[in-house]
Every structure is written in structure tokens, then in C-alpha cells.
Amino acid sequence: MTNHTLRFFTVREFKDMLSHESEVLTGYTKTMDEKIKPVADVWLKSGKANLCTKGITFYPIDKHYINGKLNSYFGLGASPMPYEFIDIGAYLLHLELIICNADKNCYEYLLNWLAHMVQKPIEKPEVAIVLKAGQGTGKGTFVDPIGKIISAHFVHLTEQSQVVGRFNSLLENKVLIFADEFFAGSKKHTDQLKGMITEKTAKIERKGVDSIMVPSFSRLIMASNHENIVSIEKDERRYLYLEVSEERKQDHDYFEALRQVIDNPKFTGQLLQFLLERDISNFNPRRVPQIKSSW
């Protein structure tokens, strides 16, 4: 396990990977000759080695081991930093005026939803964000800084099969999934999405490996230019449906100025601080603002 990834090895692969390392002195014979062994063998038999024989799990909390299992959570990708409104204001206005199309209720909900993700990552909101957005409207500009905060537990997917296909290892240990240019108008795929949004566990399947059940804490943002991105029933409460404004579509001067704000090395930490400070004590994620145009 590194700061950003989790890699799996067989015992043989582990030994081969460390075969170039100098052998380790483990003691002496009666004639005072040195006893040496490969470093991998020494580590595998050491009582000081961190062994998790019960397997791997995922909980987005700062604990390395949970119930005898290795926690595959690496933490956030940024540290909170002090900010003034001028530091993050352009981004927040982009969310309000463009992403939420100047709908104040949706804007407040979206900010609360994002704050909920960093303040209460082990509590699934059971609501996904759906963006009806064309190219060049700024949906990526919205998601990019959030993805940097979530870091190793964020994934940007551009193929439908990566989201609702059989082999879905890319979804493992994720807190935020961005399904870009996604369309799931069929009932089958919509039902799969409902499970991803609300279920507390998920089945992860890799090619050639038995499927496993793991805890699920993922949030989902979907974006597409399709009229019906998902099949939304009239009483559905699993989606915040946003029709992204095209007012700034292909406005290169606007996005260049916004990018200068977002690309500031301090911006991600400042945005994180803003989200951590936001009061969500009265926020109920399942009370979703309804948009007339979504039906």
C-alpha cells in the first residue's frame, strides 16, 4: 500500500519484487558464520510484520485496521487552508449561476451535499447529482477541484460499461464517482444505479477473480447531454437533476479566468476548509429540491 494505490501480489511475486534487495543478517552459526536470508522471507516470518489475515475492507475513516482487516482508505488529497471569499468566490458563483442555473435552492443543496461528503463520509446521502450539460459548459470545472480533494477515492469514468458493467473494480474503495457523458435510460441500468446510490454494500468483480462484497460509501455525479440521462420516476428522490446553464458555453475568457482561480496551489485546501466549516446540522440529503423541467 502506497500513499495513492493499493497493489496485490502473490507470495512469489512479492519475493521476486524484493529479490534485488541485499540479504538480511539473521544470526550466526556455532562457528560464527553469518546466517543471511532474503529480505522478503524475513519479513513474511517476522512477528513485527503488519499482517491482516482477515483480508481488506474500506471505511473512509483514519484507521489503518478495522476488525482485523486492512483499511484501504488513504485519506483526503488536501489539507484545510484559511481562505477569504475572494479566493473561492469565482468557483462558488460558477456553481450557483452555471451548474445550478441560478436556482438558489439547488445551489444550497449542492453545497450541503458536497460538505456532507467531507464531513460525514461514512454516511451515504442516497442521492446522486445529475447534470444535463453539453460540452464546454463547465461541468468538468465543477468536478475537478472536488476530485482533487477526494483524491485516491475519486474516479472519473467516461464509458457506461465502467459504471454498470460486469467488471467494476474501478468502483472499489471510492467515495466519489463521476460518470461523464453517461446515459442509463433503460430500466435495467437505472435499477443498477439505484442500488449504487442507496446500498451499503457493493459486489466488486475483477476478471479472473472471485467477486467480493465490500462496504460502499460512494457518491455519484452523472453528466450527459442526453435529454433523459436516467429514467426518473415522478416520485423519485434519489436524484438532484440540474440543467446546466449554457450562458458561458465556449466562453474562453470566462473559463481562463476561472481556471486561474482553481489552479492556484492553495485553492483545493481553501475549498476543503469552506466545506468543512459549512453548517449541515439541519441538512437532510433525502430532501431534494424538485425541478419542474426534470419530469
UniProtKB/TrEMBL annotation:
<dbReference type="Pfam" id="PF19263">
    <property type="entry name" value="DUF5906"/>
</dbReference>
<dbReference type="InterPro" id="IPR027417">
    <property type="entry name" value="P-loop_NTPase"/>
</dbReference>
<feature type="domain" description="NrS-1 polymerase-like helicase">
    <location>
        <begin position="134"/>
        <end position="238"/>
    </location>
</feature>
<protein>
    <recommendedName>
        <fullName>NrS-1 polymerase-like helicase domain-containing protein</fullName>
    </recommendedName>
</protein>
<dbReference type="InterPro" id="IPR045455">
    <property type="entry name" value="NrS-1_pol-like_helicase"/>
</dbReference>
